[in-house]
Amino acid sequence: MARHPETGPGNSAHSRRSRRVGLLDVANAANVSRSTASLVLRGSPLVAEPTRARVMEAMSTLGYVYHRGAAMLREGRTRTIGLLVNDIANPYVAEFVAFLDQALERGGQVALLANSAESDTRQQQVLLRLREHSVDGVVFSPAEDSDERVIDELEFWQTPFVQALRYVSQTRGDYAGADYAEALRLAVRHLVALGHRKIAYIGGGPKPHSASREREQGFADEMHRQGLTAHRQHVGGVTGLDGAAAISDMMAQPDPPTAVICYNDPVAQGVLGRLQAHGLLPGRDVAVVGVDDLPSSAASWPSLTTVATAMNEVGAAVVALLARRIADPHAPVRRVVIAPRLIVRQSCGARE
User: Fold this and answer.
1) Theoretical Cys-Cys bridge with 27: which of 34, 54, 170, 282, CB 3.0 to 4.6 Å?
2) Average pLDDT value for residue range 107-135
3) Are strands 174-178 and 161-164 parallel, antiparallel or unpaired?
4) Distance between CA atoms of 345 and 304, rounded to whole angstroms?
5) Can you say whether residue 196 is alpha, beta or left, with left for phi > 0 and alpha for psi between -120 and 50 degrees?
6) Keyword Transcription on this protein (predicted)?
7) Is residue 174's pLDDT more than 60?
8) What contacts 110, CB < 8 A, 6 or more positions away?
9) What is the Cα gyration radius of the chain?
């Protein structure tokens, strides 16, 4: 009886089912060395693009499946990174997470994302779970009221880590973030140059952290340097609703401010909307400046003057710092602080 060609012993599909396709098979099919095929798997930039494409095509044709577990055992790595943020609902944090996730993926790593929701207790629980997953390292933006106990644990576990956007220690552990104090100084100087003297600051939440302290200090320092005192300083929250409530309170007081600097862009966008609800035009009646330069800020009405805090540059620094820390756990502590940039739009009343 004639044997059906699809089930014959020499058929390639049958052979693939009878044994696991190895990296050497892929290398032979692509006419490259096994070491070159391995470099392609690891995403090495040393491989020319035509060669990489040929190896990838051979993998697909042969049905090669990378045995990641065995590779991790050989390397002593899981190629997973714990990414613990303080508030995933914050638009800036969400954008930052998306950037980091893409950057880690380009390096062949996977992010395990967790949200502390500004809870120090939840932060401790999540870090323990990340350790149980044997992550290669941790990037974390500390929750409000965090202290150096979180670093104590990470150091005890010998887990490489980087503090991002906020820090609990300036001397223990790498850090990358923007110069938030300079961001507020830039905003104050710009408003003073426009002729404002009654300048208010709408701060963040009532619980302190490094980013809020630096903003407040930068505002106070520059107001003092300009010979001014804060017209109002309302400590509320970090959302548009908080901004709307704060500006309503300020404008109801005698001698209200002529200019307002906000903790972040969402707060500033809330201020824009509430001022218009009261019949006031931002930029003409009250100048408004935000911080962070979210994509939505250019589309608001009027468009929001803000201070860009270089999220992509901060994200790139975080990824580089963590790679360095994983490669050399005993390297000196490094802090990367990115300079902010004023983005002038309509809401401050100046010509763009």
Assistant:
1) 34
2) 92
3) parallel
4) 6
5) beta
6) yes
7) yes
8) 79, 80, 81, 104
9) 26
Q: Which amino acid is at 111?
A: A
Strand order in the sheet with 161-164: 110-115, 80-85, 137-140, 161-164, 174-178, 335-338
pLDDT computed for residue 10 by the predictor: 42
- Determine the average pLDDT of the residues in 286-298: 96
Rounded to whole angstroms, how far apart are CA atoms 108 and 54? 19
3 state DSSP class of 261: strand
Residue 68's pLDDT band (boundaries 50, 70, 90)? Answer: low
- Going by pLDDT thresholds of 50, 70 and 90, the confidence category of residue 204 is confident
The dotted CATH code for 23-66 is: 1.10.260.40
Asked if residue 166 has pLDDT above 60, the reply is yes
- Do you know the residue count of the chain? 352
Residue 231: what pLDDT?
A: 76
Neighbouring C-beta atoms of residue 309, cutoff 10 Å: 26
Domain boundaries along the sequence of the chain: 23-66, 79-178+311-338, 180-309
User: DSSP labels for 41-80?
Assistant: HTT-TTS-HHHHHHHHHHHHHHT----HHHHHHHHT---E
Q: What are the strands, taking DSSP E only, across the chain?
A: 80-85, 110-115, 137-140, 161-164, 174-178, 199-203, 233-235, 259-262, 287-292, 305-308, 335-338, 341-343
**Does residue 228 sit in helix, strand or coil?**
coil
> Is the dihedral angle over the CA atoms 101, 106, 111, 116 positive or is it negative?
negative
Q: Say how far apart CA 140 and CA 175 lie, in whole Å.
A: 10
Is the pLDDT score of 324 beyond 50?
yes
Fold type of domain 180-309: Rossmann fold (3.40.50)
pTM over 0.85: no
CATH number of 79-178+311-338: 3.40.50.2300
Is 46:27 a contact under the CB 8 Å cutoff? no
What whole-number distance in Å separates Cα of residue 63 and Cα of residue 69? 18
